[in-house]
């Protein structure tokens, strides 16, 4: 990347698309941030390329009959069914359902993993942007030149900007040297309370990745933590 003379930033630096007007951009990573960025940037950019090593199963937030996906799917009944069904059958049913909306292989999104093996990605608008050419799917990047990117399929594209949506690492430097609070794996009971503390006086909110939205889950964590503190 240091050979590249254009601009390259991480997704956390991104605020709005206006200053990227007319640029040729490659977004690296197909998590939720990468997909959202590619869609947002494609409205102003000359061309957006979305690079992925592994592909991804793309969920829709709007499910059958216009219901929110989590309302339609996350019920006690469906939870019982999921626990009763073997993994291979759950994978097959989910993959067939998602491919019925659009063929992942045809759109350059076919994952190398089964549905339950990796976190899926939300991207209601992604197929529309791919089919209109505003977002072009690409495999992993092989190398950079001063002005271009070469992908593993041998294609080369001139690029003005590289946007890395490659995830985050989290740390707690104010706690790391105190083994009475956190162990080396950052173990937390239900992702909230460090179990090594003598009393539950510290809670972490939002350090998790749910299938649905983070904010409602964080709200429930906050209510629970407040009750414990009380």
Automatic annotation (TrEMBL):
Entry's transmembrane regions: none
Catalytic activity annotation: hypotaurine + NADH + O2 + H(+) = taurine + NAD(+) + H2O; trimethylamine + NADPH + O2 = trimethylamine N-oxide + NADP(+) + H2O; hypotaurine + NADPH + O2 + H(+) = taurine + NADP(+) + H2O; N,N-dimethylaniline + NADPH + O2 + H(+) = N,N-dimethylaniline N-oxide + NADP(+) + H2O
Location(s), subcellular: Endoplasmic reticulum membrane
EC number(s) reported in the record: 1.14.13.148, 1.14.13.8
Keywords of the record: Endoplasmic reticulum, FAD, Flavoprotein, Membrane, Monooxygenase, NADP, Oxidoreductase, Transmembrane, Transmembrane helix
Pfam families (UniProt xref): FMO-like
Record SUPFAM superfamilies: FAD/NAD(P)-binding domain (SSF51905)
Membrane topology according to the record: Single-pass membrane protein
InterPro entries: FAD/NAD-bd_sf, Flavin_mOase, Flavin_mOase-like, Flavin_mOase_1, FMO-like
One GO molecular-function entry: flavin adenine dinucleotide binding
Principal location class: endoplasmic reticulum
Transmembrane as UniProt keyword: yes
Record's GO cellular component terms: endoplasmic reticulum membrane
Names of required cofactors: FAD
Similarity section: Belongs to the FMO family.
Function: Broad spectrum monooxygenase that catalyzes the oxygenation of a wide variety of nitrogen- and sulfur-containing compounds including xenobiotics. Catalyzes the S-oxygenation of hypotaurine to produce taurine, an organic osmolyte involved in cell volume regulation as well as a variety of cytoprotective and developmental processes.
Annotated protein name in UniProt: Flavin-containing monooxygenase 1
Source species taxonomy: Eukaryota, Metazoa, Chordata, Craniata, Vertebrata
């Amino acid at each position: 990347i240091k050979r590249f003379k254009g601009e390259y930033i991480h997704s956390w630096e991104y605020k709005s698309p206006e200053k990227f007007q007319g640029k040729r951009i490659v977004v690296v990573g197909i998590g939720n941030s990468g997909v959202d960025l590619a869609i947002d940037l494609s409205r102003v950019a000359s061309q957006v390329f979305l690079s992925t090593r592994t592909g991804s199963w793309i969920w829709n937030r709007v499910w059958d009959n216009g219901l929110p996906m989590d309302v339609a799917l996350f019920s006690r009944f469906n939870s019982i069914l999921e626990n009763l069904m073997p993994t291979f059958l759950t994978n097959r049913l989910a993959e067939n359902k998602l491919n019925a909306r659009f063929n992942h292989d045809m759109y350059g999104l076919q994952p190398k993993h089964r549905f339950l093996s990796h976190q899926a990605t939300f991207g209601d608008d992604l197929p529309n942007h791919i089919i209109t050419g505003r977002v072009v799917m690409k495999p992993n990047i092989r190398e950079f030149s001063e002005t271009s990117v070469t992908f593993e399929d041998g294609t080369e594209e001139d690029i003005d900007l590289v946007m890395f949506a490659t995830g985050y690492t989290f740390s707690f430097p104010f706690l790391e040297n105190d083994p009475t609070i956190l162990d080396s794996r950052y173990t937390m009971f239900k992702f909230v309370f460090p179990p090594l503390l003598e009393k539950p006086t510290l809670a972490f909110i939002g350090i998790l990745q749910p299938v649905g939205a983070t904010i409602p889950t964080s709200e429930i964590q906050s209510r629970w933590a407040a009750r414990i503190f009380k």
